[in-house]
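Quick one: structure for this chain?
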Amino acid sequence: MPKVTVEGAGTFEVPAGTRLVNALVDECGIDQLHACGGVARCTTCRVEFVAGEPARMTKAERDVLAAKGLADTPGLRLACQITCDGDMTVRATSRLAGSGRKDCGHKPAAAIEPPPEWV
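Got it. Here's what it folds into:
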């Protein structure tokens, strides 16, 4: 099982293939935002990778990061577009606490949405 380390929260074993956004909430207990429901539209699920950043990226993630002017930020990724296939360390910077939102967003599906086109 891959290990997800969240700075300031600990290290957690997560089932292989779990979407990072769901692992952060379900296994790690993080109040991670995902306002669009995990479909790569809003960037509220963004995290900063400290270690173990996946090499591949979905077209949807690439496109929304570029549209929001975030494509050149090292380590900044969308948790909704990443599966936990190896150990990783992240900084959860986009959280419900202090956001002014009423909730994190509706639960993202188990599989990456939209269906991934890898770039």
